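Lab notebook, bench 4. Still working through the backlog of constructs that have no structural model yet. Next entry is a single chain of 101 residues. Request: give me the structure tokens for it.
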Amino acid sequence: MSPSESTPYEEVYRANGRLHADIIRGFLEAAGFNVLLYQESAGAVYGLTVGPLGEVRVLVPAEQAPEARALLAAMDRGDAPALNNNDTNLDESASDLESFH
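Model written out:
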């Protein structure tokens, strides 16, 4: 689903700066949400990360907002589910990387 003017979006999070917003966007997109970011243009141009100009609003379609808020609340509590469906064993991945040395 691509964003359109007819799709109402709701704010589900306010991030401090673009980097923080990109991390939240990636987290939500990995869970299947459509995400838009909005920041005042002056804040984006000057790379501000604090105050009203540094805030980045994270938006999702209105019908996805309750579920997105619940997922973000779980993340804040440290209860967020694993979103990576790969069955990759981290120990195996680390040993594979060691073979490149």
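Notes after review: Strands lie at 9-16, 36-39, 55-61. The domain at 9-79 is CATH 3.30.70 (Alpha-Beta Plaits). Flag for follow-up if needed.
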